[in-house]
Amino acid sequence: AWKVDIEKLDYQYYLPLLFHGLCETEYPYEFLARQGIHDMLTRGGPKILPVVPKLIIPIRNAMNTKNHQVMCTTLRIVQHRVASADGVGVALVPYLKQILPVLMCYSFI
């Protein structure tokens, strides 16, 4: 449970922090990162768009782990992020060059 209303959180600080937690595979750290991101994306609305540039490095780091579970979780969260607010998908386009090469080097089979 959050001690503070999610809408009052500093998204510039907490959302990138939680995205850095995507690399975690140990409970409860991985759960806290995933649930915190989900909660913030669900209720963040327009606060998400300005944070997009700060989320690229944690996403790339999570994808570079080559851990199947971490990569799948990260892709689901990116999908959720794109659907979370207007303009987030478009704001992500300039950064695809940094994220997509990781997928080309990894075999999902």
From TrEMBL:
InterPro entries: Parkin_co-regulated_protein
Domain of life: Eukaryota
One protein family per Pfam: ParcG
One of the record's GO molecular function terms: Hsp70 protein binding
Protein name per UniProt: PARK2 co-regulated
Organism: Fundulus heteroclitus
